């Protein structure tokens, strides 16, 4: 197991949540030098998480390279969110070696904006830099015009943009996305896919791990797609570097992934 060192882990959730307290307690086991040598932003070795009698994550290994966009698929209850929480350093009960080189930011399925703070103040929350950085992040996600708005007046897509801005303003090396688009309508989801790809392209070296249920989303966005099963990476496939991609180009990969997920397509 790697030595337990301080890590710079931030989340896009409220700073006063229990989760962030867990981070502050030093849940992540960090060996920054090891990851840097290997050109990796994150490396997980032998990660295990047991809930009562049930081993949800069972000696799992993952490496994420700098600048790599990885999608993680898995059936409901397979442990995707559990894995992501451990990677973010939010789970003091997870065991194994977690190596992160740099800052981690997380955006969750629900944007987790504090309703009593304006959008700009949510983005700037806990920031140790001038507020201009928060404005710049809002501009990057196309939300500068709503900086002074209250979170409850935002649409689902706008709230997710604010959540992304809150993650990006921390200049993360690794961005963890836990099903951030699943609650959005299909058109907004497509817009958000474009936005995330734009942001990822602009932030050279940013590693992304996207947890999703959606095989097509994984294939459109990621360089590499992993399938979680039985507590480990049960399947892994690389996707071509060409973007944008259409589902038509990816028929075989899609079929393979659906098979791995135990989904039978109905061709009637
Ligand atoms: N705090 C907890 N206590 C007990 N069991 C838990 C806890 N958190 C998660 N689990 C269990 O671990 C398993 C994996 O949960 P997790 O939320 O990681 O799955 P998931 O793959 O993200 O699921 P979904 O796709 O439905 O969101 C589930 O069976 C869940 O009930």
Structure description:
The chain has a domain of 175 residues: Rossmann fold. The longest helix has 17 residues. It has 268 residues and is of the alpha/beta class. It binds adenosine-5'-triphosphate. Adenosine-5'-triphosphate binds next to α3. This is ABC transporter ATP-binding protein. Keywords: ATP-binding, Cell membrane, Membrane, Nucleotide-binding, Translocase, Transport. One of its GO terms (molecular function) is ATP binding.
Describe how the helices and strands are arranged.
Layout: H1 18-24, H2 32-37, E1 40-51, E2 54-65, E3 69-74, H3 80-87, E4 95-100, E5 104-107, H4 119-124, H5 132-140, H6 156-168, E6 174-178, H7 186-202, E7 207-211, H8 215-221, E8 224-229, E9 232-238, H9 251-260
Parallel strand pairs: 3-7, 3-8, 5-6, 6-7
Antiparallel strand pairs: 1-2, 1-4, 8-9
Helix pairs in contact: 5-6
The structure holds adenosine-5'-triphosphate.
Adenosine-5'-triphosphate (ATP) binds next to helix 3.
What are the key terms here?
single chain; 268 residues; alpha/beta; Rossmann fold; three-stranded antiparallel β-sheet; 24% strand; binds adenosine-5'-triphosphate
Mean pLDDT metric: 84
Question: What share of the residues does DSSP label as strand, in percent?
Answer: 15-25%
Number of E-type strands: 9
Q: Outline, from the CA principal axes? A: globular
Strand order of the largest sheet: 5-6-7-3-8-9
The major sheet is characterized as: 6 strands, mixed
Into which percent range does the helicity of residues fall? Answer: 25-40%
CA-CA gap between termini: 51 Å
Per the CATH scheme, the topology name of the domain at 66-81 and 102-260 is: Rossmann fold
| CATH architecture descriptor text of the domain at 66-81 and 102-260 | 3-Layer(aba) Sandwich
Annotated CATH homologous superfamily of the domain at 66-81 and 102-260: P-loop containing nucleotide triphosphate hydrolases
Q: Radius of gyration in whole Å, from Cα?
A: 18 Å
Secondary structure tally, helices: 9
CATH class of the domain at 66-81 and 102-260: Alpha Beta
Low-confidence stretches: 1-31
Distinct ligand kinds: adenosine-5'-triphosphate
Order of helices and strands, N to C?
HHEEEHEEHHHEHEHEEH
The structure class reads: alpha/beta
